[in-house]
């Protein structure tokens, strides 16, 4: 599958440098907390407290891109962790258990504490329990209710989440014998909000024709939105990403030229991290990916006020696709499919991610029925390429593109 060389936005080099720095810090800075990437309010709390966060999920993406995940997953399975578990989880546990592999990007350090929130995949509770058993370190947990109807969320949900975050801050201060200054927390929330503001404006630029960024560019920028949330470096880098993209849009510059962009596709679910070159194959056939529900609805959906940091963090913890309903997800999809001029959908039925895959077939049927847009469902996994069939996938993609006229 040979792809044409295309000029990617320059900010990707800045993101690569930020990632390299991040992984160096996870090995060399203390205290270190392992935490997760959902709408997690404890990321900003960690930075305000001087704690270096590390993200096993993001590291699993790195491992998948370097084709190390199959070996790590197999190592976990050899220790009786079932293949039914998310491959992010198996990658992480295999990485911990493996002592005969050179870890991609140098690996991540052992934690001094573990930070968990309930607004994530349900099996993460047992994953973090397992990490606590392995590392014998304290676990701090923020428990928030699921918001089935975000437009009519009761006020007491926010009050409850605020109390949970306040308790978590108290636990962290006790565990590490520190005091988190209110002004530092306010600063972290302000920087996080600035990052979100530029992210939301960035996504809006993707409505332009041609789309100024590809899905791989948006996926790279997610690193800044999630991992660097609450830092000035993250806010400044997202501002730079936005301004470069804004200039591309103003100049009518896209990943594809205007006359080359024949179709605008939506990617549902997590990409194949081990095979992002597949996006280049679509581009060579005149297909852009202006949006993805993975980039659009999980992170960066809530603005926060630095003058009221606890409420901002509470609202963040209650937001996002992982903490909502399929009905809400479908309303957003139908709205944005029209706003982004989408004329085809690639839906990844992801063996590892049940929380994002449970409604994929329903979503596909609704999109076909209500919008009369073709949908291709691809079976796979976001990190474990052992269950991915290149030949079958490409055959189905070629047939879909023929039908689409690409």
Describe the structure.
The protein has helices at residues 11-28, 42-49, 56-65, 69-78, 87-97, 124-135, 155-176, 182-205, 215-227, 232-250, 277-284, 293-296, 309-317, 326-339, 354-357, 360-371, 390-404, and strands spanning 32-34, 52-54, 113-117, 139-142, 263-268, 287-292, 344-350, 375-380. With 406 residues, it is an alpha/beta fold. The protein has one domain: Rossmann fold (3-Layer(aba) Sandwich), CATH 3.40.50. The strands form two sheets. It has a four-stranded parallel β-sheet with strand order 2-1-3-4, sandwiched between helices. Strands 6-5-7-8 form a four-stranded parallel β-sheet, with helices on both faces. The longest helix is centred in the middle third of the chain and has 24 residues, at 182-205. The chain is globular, with a radius of gyration of 21 Å.
Topology:
Layout: H1 11-28, E1 32-34, H2 42-49, E2 52-54, H3 56-65, H4 69-78, H5 87-97, E3 113-117, H6 124-135, E4 139-142, H7 155-176, H8 182-205, H9 215-227, H10 232-250, E5 263-268, H11 277-284, E6 287-292, H12 293-296, H13 309-317, H14 326-339, E7 344-350, H15 354-357, H16 360-371, E8 375-380, H17 390-404
Parallel strand pairs: 1-2, 1-3, 3-4, 5-6, 5-7, 7-8
